[in-house]
Amino acid sequence: MAACMCRNGLSNSKGIFDRGKHCLGSKLLLRSLTVTSSPQKVFHRLTFQQQQPVTSAAVSGSTSLQALTRVHTKTLHTSSTYHGIEEFFDDPKNWGEKNVKHGDAWTLDQLRQKSNVDLWKLWYVLLKERNMLLTLEQEAIRQVERMPSEERLEKVTESMDNLIEVLLEREKALRLLKTGREEEVPGKFLFNVFGQKYYRRFKPYPMPVMMNTSFNKKYWTFPTFVEYYIRLREEKYEKRKFAQAHVERRWWAKMVEKFPNLKDQKTPWEEREEKKQRDKEQRLREIKERDY
Amino acid sequence: MASSLVFRQLLKHRLPWHPDHPKLKVLLTPFCIKLVRPGKPQPPDTLQFQIPMEMGRQELKIYLEELYNIPVADIRVRIQMGKRARNWQNRMYWKTEDYKVAYVVMRDGQTFNFPDLLTKKEEDKTEVEKMEEQMYEKEVDKQREVTRRGGINTWF
């Protein structure tokens, strides 16, 4: 009903078909961000509940001023005091305003200085902020109006990505110390039955791989008559690549006709190749430089 | 309960439990949910959420109770198909992503009404907007009059 009654018309409609990302997606799900259980119950339910305010009657036995101050500072905390559904919405002061004042995203350098527990707390603050902004975006899409200062959502996502990156860095450093390996699960490039190359993550098996010859024959090698089809597949791939390049060359010739000053510039495919070369050199240099 | 929140990807490659192998626990939840205004009128104690497809109702319950302190009595879940569209001229077809919709019933007699987040304050409105609003109200009144009279004109 509310969607029908759009007064401003469709001039303000911003991407009805574009819906905001409501999940971090497979990027995070594939990566493993877990810890082993520790004696401290940090994941216990009670941690999220509000702290019970300690009254002065509880410390009536100790009359010293220091004890009293210590107790009072414990109850002080700067996090938001209200809990509930209100947290899905912005502060009531900001309702109906065009622009909302806000800060910048968390950078990598700022996050690297924080401890793991601080990052863990910050994650949930950011998650709640993101939920709030997503609800606001959805409401704006529904009312066919512009969301107030939509750049907030990008900043929150950016800071969340940065946070994950920092945690992964730490995990990687720890793993290098423990095992001397970068990846969590070791893997190898192997050939399929159809002669395709793929990356296989190793799994625990009851029998060592070297002993299990039948399995090796079955899955990790391809029979000789498959080679012909590999050749065909490569040909198909090359043909497609050539066709694409041809289209691009024709397009570039047309562009040069239109704009003659492009003749002195580099063609896009040359630029791409140069960039590829540069990246390769960079990667090799990185491998040479690191020593662990 | 908490083990259901562990990523599915990890559960696949998990070893059988042993006292030497400690259990996996969730540190960061990747799920983001959004509270939406219900399209069809709902009872006052229900909340409507759009949640990611990977999320289950048990996980949503933990999410709401622990992070937001919302008492949950019941959750119903359905999957909504995205809208399809086509461009006849260029023979293009596209579809928005599917999403999961969750109806959460609150406990303890709590009620909720979705607030107006985008209505402008009267101080910030320009003259043109005020005029537009008046015209819109006039139109609505006219329409209401027509419906009251059963679609018959006023001169009849």
TrEMBL record, chain A:
Transmembrane segments: none annotated. One of its GO terms (cellular component) is mitochondrial large ribosomal subunit. One of its GO terms (molecular function) is structural constituent of ribosome. InterPro entries: MRP-L47_sf (IPR038340), Ribosomal_uL29_mit (IPR010729). This is Large ribosomal subunit protein uL29m. Residues 266-292 are annotated as: Disordered. It is found in: Mitochondrion. Keywords: Mitochondrion, Ribonucleoprotein, Ribosomal protein.
From TrEMBL, chain B:
One of its GO terms (biological process) is mitochondrial translation. InterPro entries: Nucleotide-bd_a/b_plait_sf, Ribosomal_uL23-like, Ribosomal_uL23/eL15/eS24_sf. Keywords: Mitochondrion, Ribonucleoprotein, Ribosomal protein. It is found in: Mitochondrion. Signal peptide: none annotated. It comes from the Eukaryota. GO terms for cellular component: mitochondrial large ribosomal subunit. Transmembrane segments: none annotated. GO terms for molecular function: structural constituent of ribosome. Pfam families: Ribosomal_L23. SUPFAM superfamilies: Ribosomal proteins S24e, L23 and L15e (SSF54189). PANTHER family: LARGE RIBOSOMAL SUBUNIT PROTEIN UL23M, RIBOSOMAL PROTEIN L23-RELATED. Belongs to the universal ribosomal protein uL23 family. This is Large ribosomal subunit protein uL23m. It comes from Branchiostoma floridae (Florida lancelet).
